[in-house]
Batch of 2 targets.
Target 1
Amino acid sequence: MSSHDSYLELTWTDEITGIKGYVVIDTLSRGVAGGGLRMRDGVTLNEVRDLAQAMTLKEAVVYTPGDRYVPLGGAKGGIDCDPYDPRARDVLARFGRAMKPLIEVLFATGEDFGVRQDVIDEVFADEGIRSSAESALSLVDDGADAAHERLKLAFSRTVDGVGLGELVGGFGVAETVLAALEFRGTEPTSATAVVQGFGSMGGATARYLAAAGVRVVGISDREGLIYHPSGLDVEALLAGRDVFGVIDRNLLRAGDELRPGETWVDADVDILVPAAMSYVITADNVDRIKASVICEAANVSTLPDAEALLLERGVTVVPDFVANVGTNAWWWWVAFGDIDPTPEGSFNKISGVLRPLTRELLTRARREGISPRQAATAISEDKRAAVAEHYPTSVKSAAVAR
Ligand SMILES: NC(=O)c1ccc[n+]([C@@H]2O[C@H](COP(=O)([O-])OP(=O)(O)OC[C@H]3O[C@@H](n4cnc5c(N)ncnc54)[C@H](O)[C@@H]3O)[C@@H](O)[C@H]2O)c1
């Protein structure tokens, strides 16, 4: 997938359980790389490497000259453990202890699939790590303490019962969906959507799509798909989620249907948002897709051969490293002081960056006859080159061709 070797790849074995954990640092920028930490049964070094490469692109793609936040390199962590495993928290603690030197010096991490930020914060604090993003905070102009305070404030905010930190990513996904609909000339109020996954990303995406008038007819979690042809009550489902994004089935309304999880892909809707695992749209199921817009909230959710088939059919695929960049960029916009740590400041910045970026990449893709992913990669590469010019010692080449 990538034309360069990772800066660092390591495999950790938990001495108590034998469970494996991985860190891949794809590239460094100013000596630091950023990327989340996922926990899922079956995660592999290859998956973590793919995700770290996408992080390199994700960091650079939102670069805006004049912002205090200048893109970091790309990295990712993964622990091969089911988040529901009773040993999960202790495994995370031992992983944190083992990775402490990396986390404090060059690996800025945070929540991802299967891991909540508040749990990382608690567990890492016990290991003497002040912040999972400590290495990046050391780059902040007015100092790590000020950055830490801004992040604390931002994470203390909630909007209608959900923490701001859990909303910004999905809000960004919804903004890219809305920009893609606009590009295709489709009114949100005439569009329908299914979201796979109802954790941080899926929950907030569903909320903000529904708020924009999109009829969210299906939402899945690890137990299956909940479907209602006239639209689900997203807020009621959000209120009935557990910490891992599983919906309490006792709260379903009359008319809400329970369907097998894998049928999310078949739904006769305009928009599909994969917001759970990676590698979910494949050559095996792509023919079942009826949607015309796919926004990848989940990292690496569409395999290249499936994406090629979708593009041939005129489906718009907004790539992961643009669609879901909101969380990552928001962390740094807050930490570096580019935005007020408020919901309004956060949503304005995310919308102000992601709507034009989505338009730009779709326009470039159409003009140059390339895929949106290729267009977005080119935009990210250009921005990385611009960063390299200003910070000459900081950037390795990040050509990721998909
Ligand atoms: N949280 C972030 O900050 C963030 C940022 C960018 C990208 N992402 C990506 O978004 C995706 C989701 O991350 P998240 O943080 O929302 O995860 P999460 O753990 O908060 O939620 C995961 C959701 O997926 C559901 N799920 C699990 N197995 C499933 C299955 N087999 N079928 C359908 N649903 C299933 C869970 O029930 C839950 O609703 C991941 O690919 C992650 O890498 C997350």
Target 2
Amino acid sequence: MRTLFARLSAALFLVVAIIGGGFFMVEQISSRLYYEEITQRLNASIAMYVTGEMQLIEDGAVNEDALTLLAQRAMIINPTVEVYLLDTDGRILAHPMPPESIQSEQVALGPVKKLMSGETEMPLRGTDPRNIDRQKIFSAHPVMHNDVLQGYLYAILGGQKYDELADSVRGSYVQKLSLGALVAIVLTAFLVGLLVFGLLTRRLTRLTSDVQTFTESGFDPEQVEALAYQGSGAGTQDEIGQLREAFSGMANKIREQFEGLKETDRLRRELVSNVSHDLRTPLASMHGYVETLLLKNDSLSEEERLRYLEITRKHSLRLRQLIGDLFELSKLDSASVKPTLETFSLAELLQDVTQEFELQAENKGIDIDVHAHDGASMVHADIGLMQRVLENLLRNAVRYTPRGGNISITLDKKPGCVAVAVADTGCGIAEHELDRIFDRFYRSEQGEEERTNSAGLGLAIVKRILDLHGSRITVNSRVNQGTRFEFDIPARAA
Ligand SMILES: Nc1ncnc2c1ncn2[C@@H]1O[C@H](COP(=O)(O)OP(=O)(O)OP(=O)(O)O)[C@@H](O)[C@H]1O
Ligand SMILES: [Mg+2]
């Protein structure tokens, strides 16, 4: 009883048995009622015919001989008829049956009068004097003499003869046949139901086993396809088909997330190895120079000593910057950090940031142009984070633009936001690298010299900060012609 199929089959069996049994009972009752109604209508006039033939009661005296004769005649018409002569109170005055077979001396007059009035539904049953437990259909007629009511003639239709006959017919060929047909119909219905349930539950069972296989396979893509595959075809639209579709969709989602997790894990490993590599290189170099200073301090010239110290300082600065960037990225990644939004002038911020790079740019002979209208540059953002974005972009522009180049920064008012563009006339980025430059630790293949001093974290930080502001950065670049970064910053609180 544990499987759905078994339960459905049991329920079906119950329903079929109830319907079959109910039908059998209704059929039995209705066929009996049908017989009784027909018989009563057909034989309604028997009593009238008997009373019409001879005078049965004359001033209270019963003509027994006439009654016996007439009863015999009536039995020729219908052998199951039993005739009684009643007085006006329903008491039995005479009958042609053996006296010991009579159980009741009294017949209820209610049904008799009802039948004679003609206003009644048939079959109508009355007292059977030979069997007080059971009422029977009957025919009745008043017995008159000189227009005075003397009593009634009461004729039971289907008396004991009928009962004996009906008993002997029970279990006859016809009855067996009809019962057999009923059982066959019920059984067929049950079997067809079993087949249908079997087909339906088989699909469920298959779905369950497919889902199990998928789970056990460790989210194998092939199993996802197997789940979806059987969904296409007949029966896709029914609930089981929809369930399969839902499962297949869920399996796809799970697999995607699983792949995503695997990718994240791979990136994390890569990050850790990149970080350790980037930390180790300057650290090893610093260690080497400090060791040399310690060991050969006496033999080193003042100039050499200063150079070694300068190199050590450069490496320690780089380490500090790297650790700072990593720390910042991990902070930005953790969901707990929310940008503190405030309204400020982006033009003013830009001015401060360009000032930081003025000296560096001047040394390289690079011009920095700013196109910004102070009034049209109010934005709603985290000012500290925005400063980091502009710094990183400007640092890149200055770093990757050769001597004599040009950098231009534009602020444009757009509906609901301010569009920022940072463009340079630098070395540019090869097309196949464009979608990787925002990855952590990604550094361009060209420019060996710049690579040693960079970690490849700047643009990753920029992208993350803009993500937090609901903005997207885009890049356009041509190798040896220049690069242009663009993004929008919300102008007002949403
Ligand atoms: N303005 C630019 N012109 C040309 N190439 C650029 C420019 N900005 C970025 N790139 C390329 O994109 C790569 C990634 O830039 P990102 O700022 O993330 O790292 P980085 O500048 O190399 O190092 P970091 O910023 O961490 O010091 C750079 O290595 C560089 O090759
Ligand atoms: Mg950078």
